[in-house]
Structure of NADH dehydrogenase subunit E:
Amino acid sequence: MSEIAFKPETLEKVKQIIARYPEGRQKSALIPVLHLAQKEFGGWLDVPVMDYVAQILDITPIEVYEVATFYTMFNMQPVGKYVLEVCVTGPCMVRGSDTIVNHIKEKLGIKAGETTADGLFTLKPAECLGACGYAPMMQLGKFYKENLTIEKVDEILELCRQGQIALD
């Protein structure tokens, strides 16, 4: 891997985030800086990227690893362009999220946590995403897809394949 460094404009954002916190409290910037790192370095956080973040924040690498591996919003392995985070907790399960997950597995030929061979989709079961009244649901980028049915899932997958779903 080539030398890891934020683009100048991203580094400026990092500096702005760090400046929000008192001197000596730069570790408080860790989560937003990890989000920037994940976005800039391929959608996941490998060890050299986490080490780079530790260096920027002047904290130990283990402090970064602890946070990055604790929160499910950070990916510890490469993921597809579209990460299908399907809620699998109680309310969604009662409303059929297991059927949705199984359909996605079958339709894409992958298991939970896997990515399709074309690098387009990753299936990631998620704990409560806070939209129980609209179950079953999934998060796709920063958007919620709610009241899912097999037909809606098929439509979402097709729109993704056509590049018609924006993630930002």
